[in-house]
Design brief:
The chain is an all-alpha fold. The protein contains four helices and no strands.
Length: 79
């Protein structure tokens, strides 16, 4: 057993840096998700569903119609 062996438990400073990095990644993911949801609710005109529904997503705009009343609830212009 050597006197210069490294401890198996990470130091307090290493754990603190890892915790801050994890928190920053979680915050970044949440901000990206919030921006995507805001785009879908306020700006989407069928583009998000076009890979699934094709041209039907423009004429039967389900996502737009689903969020239409939400736009009015938040007093956002959509017309």
């Amino acid at each position: 057993m050597g006197a210069l062996s490294t401890p198996a438990v990470p130091s307090q400073e290493t754990a603190s840096i890892a915790g801050r990095l994890r928190d920053q990644v979680i915050a970044g993911v949440l901000v990206a998700l919030a921006l995507f949801i805001l785009y879908a609710v306020f700006l989407d005109q069928g583009a998000l569903l076009s890979p699934v529904y094709g041209e039907l997503s423009r004429s039967a705009n389900y996502l737009h119609e689903l969020s239409h009343d939400g736009r009015h609830l938040f007093a956002a212009n959509c017309h």
